[in-house]
Automatic annotation (TrEMBL):
Protein name stated in the entry: Response regulatory domain-containing protein
GO biological process annotation, one example: phosphorelay signal transduction system
Organism: Phyllobacterium salinisoli
Positions of the Response regulatory domain: 5-117
Entries under SMART domains matching the protein: REC
InterPro entries associated with the record: CheY-like_superfamily, Sig_transdc_resp-reg_receiver
Amino acid sequence: MNDARLLVLEEELLIALEIQRIAEEAGAAVIDLVHSLDELGAYIRAKPPYAAAIMEVRVKGVSTLAAAAQLQLVGLPVVFATAYNHYRRGVTGFPISPVVLKPFESTALVEAIATAVSKHPAIGA
């Protein structure tokens, strides 16, 4: 993950900061934290060169899956971080997007990011 730039959509500040800490310890250079779909849209419109996005499945009661699909369409791998156990085996419509269940271990998150980047057709294949 050396020098990677990551985009994180997480509404809970402490979880967002934990994801940031884990990513920085794994070598990410920049981690942009956003807490809503509106903020996510603003960062994407700015088009910085992200290596991957780490997203909740729902933010403030709203599904993030449409936004995740748009990110994948423009070549950005997505990792889902969720507390919803029924997503343990994956998110329907996102066969190459890893899911990490909260609370997650550092290694699980880092491995999920590496897997998403390596499996994404526009990035790693």
